[in-house]
Every structure is written in C-alpha cells, then in structure tokens.
Predict the structure.
Amino acid sequence: MADPTIEQLSESVITVGTGWGLEISSGPDGRLRIVRRGGELLNPPVEFAVTDSKLRAYYRHIAEEAERGVAPEPAWEWWMTLMSTHLAEALHDLDRAARPCVITVGDTGFSATPIDSAQ
C-alpha cells in the first residue's frame, strides 16, 4: 500500500483528536490547530508546528516498524494507535507546561513545546 497523503494524515489526527475530546481544525495556512478541548474554546488555539515533511517522516517512522514486523498491526492501524497515544501524551505535556505551547513532532511523536522554546 502506498503511503497516505498529507491530507489523509492530517484527517487522521483530526479524527483521533475527537476521541480525546478535541476539536482540531485546519487553519488558513493549512496547519492543524486545537480550537476546543472538552468543549471549551481555547484562546488562543494550540497550533501544530509541524511541517508536511515532518508529519510524513513521523508516519514513515511508525510504518517502518510495522513493515519490519515489530508492530502488532499493519502500518496504517499502527499509525493510528501510536499517533493517538502520542497525541494524548502531548496533551499531558500541555497540562504540565501550564503556559502557551505548540504541538511539535520529534523522535517520540507529538509533544507540547512551550512557545518560547519552539522558536
């Protein structure tokens, strides 16, 4: 199976976010942002400071585990499982930081990074 498009990857993040009580939308710049959490409007929204290439690389890293047989699921399902877990971890990071953050992606997936550290 071919890798998913950036639109499919973004939509998967939006879908998984719903399960965590988030409303994630795509802004005019095409970047994802958490606009509501638990029904509460976030002002300002929490931006995903993730480029298309970073999101693709994040997917590819997870898919390679599945392709090597070290994951218990096929690539897309493994992506949905791990990305969901990593999104939940980013929310936990966001709560612990207790200051404005952006969502970034690194070796361990999504995390919340304080805005002054993300630049």
Summary: The mean pLDDT is 93. Residues 75-97 form the longest helix (23 residues).
